[in-house]
Design brief:
By secondary structure, the chain is α+β, with helices and mostly antiparallel strands. It has helices spanning 6-15, 32-47, 51-74, 97-110, 117-129, 186-189, 229-235, 265-271, and strands spanning 78-81, 84-88, 135-137, 142-146, 150-156, 166-167, 172-176, 179-184, 198-201, 208-211, 217-218, 227-228, 247-251, 254-258, 262-263, 276-282. A hairpin with a 2-residue loop joins strand 1 (78-81) and strand 2 (84-88). The chain is extended, with a radius of gyration of 26 Å.
Length: 289
């Protein structure tokens, strides 16, 4: 169908007395696709009369490239393992980063994973630099694991079910996994107002602590729009295995606080004159904070 214009299709249907339905939304400039169709493309065609053929040529070459990538991947030693795709590391060793970006787009599609440009670039770097046991998370909670002789893509990062969500008390302490939360009145807290390891809230909030989940979002204090919790963690340098099971404090399903990372603007708005200060600290394996 790429070779045919809308007018070609309409003529074909009319010649055979075929009826079709016009979608009225196709004329609405409220949709970006229609602004492209009715405004941007005509302007580009006026400035560059050969645009349509150039775009078709790009599409044809892209189709050829996809076919060539598929044939290369068909020759690779890959296998399925519990829904994930296992790729022999040796099969990727001789490719440069740009070639790996192309190959990973095809490999990921076979694992049912859709990658954007950042994902393919990240996987190319991971392929070159990761050591056995290293992990990488992709959007949607998909995990990439480096084994000694293979790279596994497609496994979902499972939440740590052994650490269930817990009610955050308005006083005293709560141990949650390798984390300790302490609640106290503002006068007793001695908290550093600049530290992301504490948050001040109005008393009476029903709060829970749980592990972060793919898809969680938070409107950080001072931010113009909500962002994924995963991005807050990444920007704070919390990546790979360390990121799995990192706690968030929620009111209902609204993320109020990522301990050690950022407080939400909802916490600022709701707090008013704070009545409870929550502080968080990480406990090392020996039990000392």
């Amino acid at each position: 169908m790429l070779e045919l214009s809308r007018a070609d299709v309409a003529r074909h249907a009319s010649a055979r007395s075929l009826r079709w339905i016009e979608d009225p939304s196709n004329e609405s400039r409220a949709f970006f696709r229609n602004r492209v169709r009715h405004e941007i493309l005509p302007a580009l065609r006026a400035a560059r009369p050969g645009l349509d053929e150039e775009l078709l040529d790009i599409a044809r070459r892209a189709a050829v490239l996809r076919g060539e990538l598929a044939r290369v991947v068909d020759t690779m030693p890959i296998r399925r393992e519990e829904g994930a795709l296992v790729v022999a590391a040796a099969a990727l060793a001789d490719y440069d980063p740009e070639e790996l970006r192309l190959l990973w787009s095809e490999l990921a599609s076979r694992a049912g994973v859709v990658l954007d440009a950042r994902g393919t670039a990240g996987l190319a770097r991971f392929t070159k630099k990761a050591g056995a046991g290293d992990r990488m998370q992709l959007s949607g909670g998909v995990e990439v694991l480096r084994r000694r002789e293979a790279i596994v893509i497609g496994a979902k990062v499972a939440a740590d079910e052994s650490i269930a969500p817990r009610l955050l008390p308005a006083g005293g302490t709560l141990a949650w996994g390798s984390w300790r939360f302490r609640a106290s009145p503002p006068s007793d807290a001695g908290a550093d107002a600049r530290s992301p390891w504490w948050i001040a809230l109005r008393g009476g909030e029903t709060l829970h602590v749980r592990g972060w989940r793919p898809g969680d979002r938070m409107h950080g204090a001072g931010d113009r729009a909500p962002r994924r919790v995963k991005r807050f963690l990444r920007d704070a340098g919390i990546v790979g295995p360390e990121r799995i099971g990192w706690p968030v404090v929620v009111a209902g399903e609204q993320v109020m606080w990522i301990p050690g990372v950022r407080r939400s603007d909802a916490a600022t708005v709701r707090s008013g004159r704070p009545e409870v200060v929550y502080q968080c600290e990480r406990i090392d394996p020996s039990g000392e904070s």
